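Records of this kind hold a single protein each, on a pair of labelled lines. With that in mind, the following record should read easily:
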Amino acid sequence: MPKMKESLKGQINRDLTSVAPSNIRTFDAQVSSIDGIVKLTLGEPDFNVPTAMKEAAIQAIEANDSHYTPSAGTDSLRHAIAHFLADRYQLNYDPQKEIAVTVGATEAIFASLEAILNPGDKVLIPTPTFPLYETVVQMLGAQPVLIDTSATGFVLTPELLSTTLEKEGPVKALVLNYPSNPTGVTYDADQLKALAAVIDRTSLFVIADEIYSELIYSGTHTSLATYLPEQTLVINGASKSHAMTGYRIGFIAGPAELMKVVTMVHSLLVTSPSNPAMAAAVAAFGTEAGRQATLTMKKAYQERRDFMLTALSAAGFEIASPNGAFYLFAKLPEQFNNKDEAFATALAKEGAVAVIPGSYFGPGGAGYLRLSYATSMKNLRLAAERIQSFVATHDHL
């Protein structure tokens, strides 16, 4: 195999030297080969893509829908997304100027941050959170500022935000993910309104990653864009709400002037998403069948959440209030001394259950485990039994 010329090694993009491989993916790969292991690691729905979405994709293929579309996505999908946002969250966006369809929410995050950041800009990221935000900020030569929210119930409070802004000086953006990966914690309307009052006094951009917005178990989801439409880019998609992770359909919605730049970045990255996948997403976001499919999955997730809450609490774990997404963020029983990585490794090897150490999600995550309940009740019952047995037979690590 060819090797890189030695003199070239020092010329690679220096902003990438601080970027490490995903701990989550690395840990998952390490434990996946353990015989009989039950995996509660990755945040991927175990449901099949609903029939209406599959049929729409098939029809697009059979109709030879295989040519370039506008970079921002097909008109039909952008109108379906506009309908979805208005119907679910009372957000009104012009489908022609204020919505862009992306290759998953991951590309949406990159395109949004690329559009607003210059080298050296500071970006506030409440933690524990999905590590991708910090990684992308670093890749773009900007500076992530991690805010530990473990002392405030895993939510960013107005007081904590104000204190951080005073300490850090000029800040370009805030990334807010809710319902949260990894905690399952979310914000109600009053909490968001209070945060918006602080942000409104600044020139901050807000990247509101609301990919789990349809998976709220008590009450309803409110978007920060309700209160800060001029400063907010809303990110969402079909992966979590409609089990369409492999279709790679996300979207960004925001003010028209800002979306011009975001859409330009997006078009240079990917040109446009796949036509059959976009056709499927029209059925997901624009039809009653799409809505009902989500409600069916949400009911199952809630049953799984409730089961795991009871099982883990009985084993001595303390659980962050999980009102959304499909994760539990469980604090280790005292005898394990916050050794989340050691616990997760031993649980995989000895107990044949794979979970993700909470420390992988940034400050405030040490001593916790993230468990995904996006798997069958059969698997969850087996995992709960094994976790309870492991805790009962270990008084330390």
Remarks:
- DSSP finds twelve helices and 13 strands in the chain.
- Residues 75 and 356 are 40 Å apart (CA to CA).
- Residues 6-48+296-392 form a domain with the Aspartate Aminotransferase, domain 1 fold (CATH 3.90.1150.10).
- The chain has a mean pLDDT of 96.
